[in-house]
């Protein structure tokens, strides 16, 4: 009896040793991993950066993800038409007479969250999108929380409605699905293991951020620089740039992040370059009194963010302009950021 008991004990001790060994190995491999946390307010472009990582380092998208984007694109174009019809009503833009009843029926009958585009839906969308009043409303889409990409997708309605429509990389990069919770992507480049953590940026999601702070190697904060004239989706009276700046200021004060190096990505630079020619920066920063051009206005915004970070010895803050939907441009920025980590420029400062 006693013999079998001690054999059991030996077995258990062996099992424990194995578990400990496995635990040590897992910890070692996690220690070798570089963890990067992506933060920023909603719609700034965080998940688009993750998509680029998937394209560049993970061979693209899985069938399940493609299906998710196919459904989202179809649901969204149906919704865009609704927003545009309502925008026409609010702005006093009259639709063509032959489209007026159609528009009323469309608002009444097209349901939210229905990813199918029937033959009838397709015909209606094409007719309504061709109406000059909706085109006029699109020109002021900023006022209605309608994204730029609405035009890109509505122009592709015929293709999107086809039964065998498969979104390509460009479609996926342009399709917005707001992140809920925390998403992670792991990948390997040469001998280095990377872990990129993406969080939801809308107000209701931000309380989850803090759980990700303690063991990161670098913080990437994404700012949609083109959104200096837009109001927040969650609260119409708040300017999106002000919200981003205030969230950044609060975030960097957190004890866990005090000594972390930061990369600031001023994203949507493609839209910013166009917008700054037409809409003055003073709509966001009334005190701004320099030239109204990309260089000066961009520098002013960058400085606002940089100045919010308390200088600490050795901490580095780097800024980049980015266009997250452009794979080639992003590849350069991503590689530069990765290089700065693996070459030790960043890590030595912790
Ligand atoms: N034109 C342009 N569009 C961009 C750029 N970056 C992102 N977008 C678009 O902006 C939208 C929002 O991007 P996401 O990556 O989903 O934003 P997010 O920060 O993850 O948003 P949340 O998940 O809500 O926090 C998508 O439709 C993207 O295609 C850019 O540099 N230029
Ligand atoms: Mg996201």
From TrEMBL:
Residues the entry annotates as binding GTP: 173-179, 198-202, 267-270, 324
SUPFAM superfamilies the UniProt entry points to: P-loop containing nucleoside triphosphate hydrolases (SSF52540), Transducin (alpha subunit), insertion domain (SSF47895)
Keyword vocabulary terms for this entry: GTP-binding, Lipoprotein, Magnesium, Metal-binding, Myristate, Nucleotide-binding, Palmitate, Transducer
Top-level taxon in the UniProt lineage: Eukaryota
Presence of the UniProt keyword GTP-binding in the record: yes
GO MF annotation: an example: G-protein beta/gamma-subunit complex binding
Keyword Lipoprotein: yes
Binding site for Mg(2+): 47, 179
Region entry Disordered, spans: 1-28
InterPro entries, per the entry: Gprotein_alpha_su, GproteinA_insert, P-loop_NTPase
One Pfam family here: G-alpha
SMART domains the record matches: G_alpha
Name this protein carries in UniProt: Guanine nucleotide-binding protein g(O) subunit alpha
